[in-house]
Amino acid sequence: MFAIYGHQNAARLAFYGLYALQHRGQQSAGIVTAGQGDGFAFKKGMGLVSEVFHEDDFSRLPGHIACGHVGYASAGSYRDIQPFSIRYNDQFFTLTMTGGILNGPSLRRRLEKEGSIFQTDSDSELIMHLLARHMHQGLEQGLISALNLLRGAYCLLLMTNDSLIAARDPRGFRPLCLGRMEDAYILASETCALDLMDAVYLREVEPGEILFVNRQGLRSLKPFTPLKHAHCIFEFVYFARPDSNVFGQNVYLARKRQGEILAEENRTVTAKFAMSFPDSGTYAALGYSAARGIPFEMGIIRNHYVGRTFIQPSPDIRDFQIKIKLNPVRELVRGQEVIVVDDSIVRGTTIKARVQSLRRAGAAKIKALIASPPCRHACYYGVDFLGRGELMAGSHTVEETMRLLDLDDLRYLSAGGLLRSVRAEKNADFCLACFDNNYPLPPEEERD
Ligand code: SF4
Known about the structure:
The chain is built from 17 helices and 23 strands. It has helices at residues 10-20, 49-52, 104-113, 123-134, 139-148, 192-196, 234-239, 251-265, 282-292, 320-325, 330-333, 349-360, 392-395, 398-405, 415-421, 433-436, 443-446; strands at 2-5, 28-34, 41-46, 65-71, 84-88, 91-101, 152-159, 164-168, 177-181, 184-188, 200-204, 210-214, 217-221, 231-232, 245-246, 249-250, 273-276, 300-302, 326-328, 337-342, 365-370, 409-412, 430-431. The chain is α+β, with helices and mostly antiparallel strands. Helix 4 packs across helix 5 (139-148), helix 8 crosses helix 9 and helix 8 packs antiparallel against helix 15. The strands form six sheets. The chain has a seven-stranded antiparallel sheet. Strands 5-6-7-8-12-13 form a six-stranded antiparallel sheet, covered by helices on one side. It is 30% helix and 25% strand. Strand 9 and strand 10 form a beta hairpin. It has two domains: 2-227, 4-Layer Sandwich (Glutamine Phosphoribosylpyrophosphate, subunit 1, domain 1), CATH 3.60.20; 250-303 and 316-426, Rossmann fold, CATH 3.40.50. The site of iron/sulfur cluster (SF4) has 12 residues, from helix 16. Iron/sulfur cluster is lined by residues 173, 232-234, 379, 381, 383, 386, 431-434.
């Protein structure tokens, strides 16, 4: 998510911002602009940011306010692509959000019983309905009342013709930061989007905070009862870019510490060298290698020029999707015992194909060190790929996983080790629910 208020090139900057945030969603992209006249302009589409937007789009996206999103449009439907815009009482509103609303289905059913008609499955549309129902209280109080009904994780950006509003749930599950560029204010999921345009990082939007940005400047409200924070620790394992700071910490350094702690926790594992499956495991592998004094090698090389659209190969070319991206250095791995450091195992399909490619290249022994604990439980806070029943560690023991992945050894970072990597202790302000089943907001109570 990215938004900017108060810049004449708002749409173009939103494009750059989304470009920097592309790793947070690759199926769809959208930008809506406002602030010139009464209306909104928008462009959305399925695909990467570079595929959806073209130079001539920017002249059709006027206005000094822009709001954009990259995401996973559910079921690949154009209507589900964010940002989501509505017209209500002669006013335009555009909303984009990340997260997951646990009581979304029951709220939606209640509204439908009362006559609301939904066009999409998105939580953004649900929030718009709730806001419209409370607009008689005015925008500020109406938004507070609408957000008060939500149980879950959300970061949202709401745009009107003359203002930009950001809100973060009281537990602060997902990151959202505030930056400044000349006279403009920027809101973004990660700080890497600010760096790209030389914007200055000001601070995080705080958990439970609603931030109003308009011609008068910034105004902060904290209308909700403070709750224990539950920042998503998976941001430090996989989601966030390593050059970003999230929840006040640098991701690269946290990942390196994960590798160092893996080394501490697994002193008996030995091999000729340590390597990673680039890029995800590389930062932890560097930390591991330095801490153990085992050399780090680029045992597998990544092709950086793989687009999404290439001619599908004939079925006789096995594992083409994996092979076109990553290719082992045969002369390096042949006949060797290797340690592979990876960030996490979710479904297990990607690591399995990569291990097979190392086997074909002649690796004698493959020992996997995973820089996070076994991921056994679903995420209800907006991470769809951590779904129930799809997680390798959810239905297999470590020994079974080892056999299924054809590994000679498999070790995971402990939950305590993961917390230490973000300089936190037990009961710190982090969510580890997909690892430890300790849900900050229990799904049983909220989900239908
Ligand atoms: S359950 Fe896992 S992925 Fe979801 S918010 Fe918690 S730590 Fe993050």
